[in-house]
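Researcher: Sequence of Fe-S protein follows. Predict its structure.
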Amino acid sequence: METLRSIVLLVHLVGFATIFGSWLVEVANRRVQVTRLMQWGLALSLIAGLALSAPWGTDADFNYLKIGIKLVILLVIGGLLGVLGARQKRGAQIAPAMFWAVGIMTLANAAIAVIW
Ligand code: HEM
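Model: Prediction complete. Tokens:
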């Protein structure tokens, strides 16, 4: 059970790496756009994160305030990706502040997970 939990945590981290990594690629290429990979990474983080939020394969106590805040932040990131993706499809420009918010909030969620 513990090994399975570690695998789910690994999947959760792959989700984080996928969102943040694909966002960084756009920053490095000076493109203000969201990509399908960011959406897949977010979905992976959400599914694995929800699975990790149940007390199985561990004796640790859960900090549900921390988990709840991470969930709210993830939903806001999802909303941003949805709005920005729809605007891009229509060929409209997307606000740089909203694009930056996706990366900053993703990093903030990782910081909350590791530091809190
Ligand atoms: C962009 C979104 C997210 C990012 C970047 C993220 C990042 C991380 C990271 C880096 C860890 C590892 C922390 C450590 O082991 O020290 C972690 C663990 C965890 N995350 Fe997330 N997370 C996100 C969303 C979520 C969501 C939405 C939930 C639940 C609803 C969640 C639940 C958890 C739980 C329960 C753990 C602890 C796993 C354990 O120690 O057994 N995460 N997260």
